[in-house]
Amino acid sequence: MEVTPEAIAAAVHRFSSVRGHGTLPNLMAFARALKQLGVKVSLSQVIDASRSVEFVDVARKSDFRALLRSNLISQKEDFPIFDCFWREQVYERVPMESLEIEGTPTESRAQEGGDEEGLEEAIAETMANNDVPLEDLEEFSIPTYSPQELLNHKDFSEMGVEESRAIARAILLIATKIATQISRRKKRARKGNAVDPRWTMRNNMKYGGEIIDLVNRKRRIKKTKVVLLCDVSGSMDCYSRFLIQFMYGLQNELWGVETFVFSTSLSRITHLIRTKDITNALEKISASILGWSGGTNIGRSLHAFNRNFAPSMVTHRTIVVIISDGWDRGDVSLLEREMQDLKRRCKKIIWLNPLLASENYEPLCKGMQAALPYLDLFLSVHNVDSLIALGRTLQKMVA
Amino acid sequence: MNLKELTIERVQEVLRDERYICDRSLATIVYLSLLMGKPVLLEGEAGVGKTEVAKVLAKVLGAKLIRLQCYEGLDANTALYEWNYPKQMLRIKLEEVEHGDKEAVETEIFSQEYLIKRPLLEAIQSDGANPPVLLIDEIDRADMEFEAFLLEVLSDFQITIPEIGTVAAKHRPYVFLTSNRTREIHDALKRRCLYHWIEYPSFEKEYEIITTKFPEVEATMARQICAFMQRVREMNFYKRPGVAETLDWASALIALNRKGLDDKTVVETMGCVFKYREDLHHLREQIEGRQLNLEALLRVSPELVS
Q: In A, which residues are within 8 Å of B145 by CB distance?
């Protein structure tokens, strides 16, 4: 995660303003500041940190730093943020007395006075240099971008019957391949390759413990979940009819599919296409989604997904399929950060790009460039053939 | 080691006595974990001594080391306990022949004697004078289901066996988890642990490690080895060598009675450092093509010493 000096300055500022007296309030302020910079810290970690303070001489800064870091940070990637924050002289400049459980408030305040002034000065300087108002820094902010959202209502009624049947067949193939993945864990089965002693015993109790039936076990089928994130912005216009078809097909074939569409913002449409009637579904979607055929902000949409949906929907078993041409008008660094975050959560990320089929297309646009390192598969989808090819690739990947 | 008089320095010292050199931050974490009874999660590249910490600590504490090596498909039965089915069945058969008391047999075959203890139960039931050290190695290789199960065990250190009852730990084991980061560990598990990332050692630290492990080594050669290792880790190899490789190499050179390193020796013994054909090939090519100056690689220059 990338953290700007402004964000650090803001966190430092907030920290120094909310810092109370006593270990726990201080540590909580510290943790809150870290949280603000995007580090995951839980209350139990803070409590443990405050418990461990009594075992270590906090005057020795390196020990104190090791104590805080091991308690509050739980992945290497967050070390730089911690170090940055630490270096920002939160604990270096502000005297340690305020951290002791029985510090005299007035004394430490007097001592801190000068230091905090210096700190504020530094922050003021940063602000002046970067010309940012304080309010904007209050929260770890997402760079915003707002082009005109074209609130068109699309007509999907001209779906060719032949075409949609062919697509449905191809989708069925893909869906079943994804759905039946072999697990290394075992389950009981009539036919299998190993005897399950526990269940054999239990099952044969009815014969008075005489082993008559053998219960076998075999590898369990792992249910892979799929999350579809589909770009429906203006640049994807000519594909969107097909895309909806694809999402509809996949969701109705597979258990555990979640479907989202995004342009400048993200909408969940799983409930809208949970129906047997495709025409009806298309109508419902075009009626309810605003911003269809508008601009694209993949980074922001992914951020919304990662924050609101990913924690409950995406696990190590989830394959995330993103369908987009990668033309992004938002912040590229945000996109990259969110891709990284998503990559960490899920099993595979597949990016389907309809433009990939054209011969002189190269993924040069910045958005696509930023996303490429995090993809497990980068494939084309523009017709039924490419879908069948996708089916084969998935088959190999899963096997 | 007396826990009451424990200090960070003391931890560092006793580990050093057992020839494990660790920096102060790791010592602080080990110290905290001993006092707080909080598990330690160690991450780092392969061969930096993650597993070794637990092994050495067990030795220092005079505690039993219980190791659970994780792998994909590891489940509660293999990690916790299992009934000894063949033995139970034989017992039943025997009683049938001898027309023994049915109920007595039933209670008997579900007693401790017929229980196969796996590492986690062993750690909990351990009744030595000291709490055992439980090493859960390469947790990233086990799957999420196992992680969730582990979370439960680590939070209250008790296990319920339906036929026997609840077994609670007499003393909380000292738990060390290691991970090579082939996947992310779940936040819930991480939250319960003290986290530390073990870096590749600095030049001085690596030198100290070699000379502590092999006091008989020539000082110049030890320095050459360290210089080589430090530089090679900066280069583009598929698998960067860890401390384990350094020690392998040093012991090989000692066995060969070498006092210093030259081109020929390096090329001959490179198998100790690089374990991939491509890496070996790459190195040999570079040396032969003179793109790589071995002499420069082995030189101890000021920039290595921080």
A: 185
- CB-CB under 8 Å, B183 with A316: yes
Give the per-residue pLDDT at A383: 67
Residue A363 has pLDDT above 60, yes or no: yes
> Domain limits of chain B?
3-72+126-198, 203-304
- Residue A61 sits in the same domain as residue A205: no
- Same-domain check for residues A295 and A350: yes
CATH of domain B3-72+126-198: 3.40.50.300
Angle at A106 between CA A31 and CA A43, to 5 degrees: 15
What would the mean pLDDT of A266-290 be, rounded to a whole number? 72
Do A36 and A75 belong to one domain? yes
Token match 């909580």: residue? Answer: A28
Give me the domain span that covers residue A70: 5-137
CA distance A121 to chain B (A): 33
> CA of A184, closest CA in chain B: separation in Å?
5
Give the chain A residue nearest B41 (alpha carbons).
Answer: A74
User: Tell me, what's the pLDDT at A124?
Assistant: 43
- Report yes or no for ipTM above 0.85: no
Closest-CA distance, B58 to chain A, in angstroms, reads: 21
Which residue, chain included where needed, has tokens 């579904």?
A281
Q: What is the pLDDT of residue A122?
A: 41
Whether residue A273 is contained in a domain is answered as yes
Same domain assignment for residues A207 and A240: no
Contact between residue A387 and residue A354 where contact means Cβ atoms under 8 Å apart: no
Interface mutation target, options A70, A187, A212, chain B, most CBs of B under 10 Å:
A70
Please judge whether B196 and A316 are an interchain contact, meaning their C-beta atoms are less than 8 angstroms apart: no
Phi, psi of B195 (to 5 degrees): -105, 135
B91 touches chain A (CB under 8 A): no
Number of separate domains in chain A: 3
In the predicted structure, residue A177 carries a pLDDT above the cut 50: yes
Residues near A267 by Cβ (< 8 Å), separated by ≥ 6?
Answer: A260, A261, A288, A289
Cβ proximity of B126 and B136 under 8 Å: no
Does one domain contain both A25 and A107? yes
Nearest CA in chain B to A66: B25
Q: Quick one: pLDDT at residue A150?
A: 28
Locate the chain B residue with the closest alpha carbon to A197: B85
pTM > 0.90: yes or no: no
Nearest by CB to B29, from A62, A70, A184: name it: A70
Question: Are residues A207 and A232 part of one domain?
Answer: no
User: Does residue A156 lie within any of the structural domains?
Assistant: no
CA distance A348 to chain B (A): 12
Model pLDDT, residue B198: 93
Strand partners for B72: none
Buried b (16+ CB within 10 A) or exposed e, A383-393: bbebbbebbee
Name the most confidently modeled range: A126-135, A295-304, B33-42, B227-236.
B33-42
pLDDT at residue B151, rounded to an integer: 87
The more confident residue out of A191 and A318 is: A318
In this structure, the strands spanning A216-222 and A266-268 are unpaired
Instruction: Return the percentage of chain A with pLDDT > 70, whole number.
Output: 54
Per-block average pLDDT, block size 10, for chain B (306 residues)? 81 92 93 92 91 94 93 84 87 83 84 91 87 93 85 86 87 92 82 92 93 92 92 82 94 92 87 86 82 79 74
Same domain, residue pair A270 and A302: yes
A73 interaction partners in chain B (CB closer than 8 Å) = 195
Residue A307 is assigned to a structural domain of this protein: yes
CB contact under 8 A, A209 and B92: yes
How far A206 CA lies from chain B's nearest CA (Å)?
15
Mean pLDDT computed over every residue of chain A: 68
- Predicted local confidence at residue B158, as pLDDT: 86
Same domain, A254 and A346: yes
CB-based contact A74 B195, cutoff 8 Å: yes
Distances (CA, A) of A394 to A391, B11, B212, B280: 5, 52, 52, 35
Q: For the packed helices B219-234 and B203-213, what is the interaxial angle rounded to 10 degrees?
A: 140
Say which of B29, B86, B143 has its CB closest to residue A66: B29
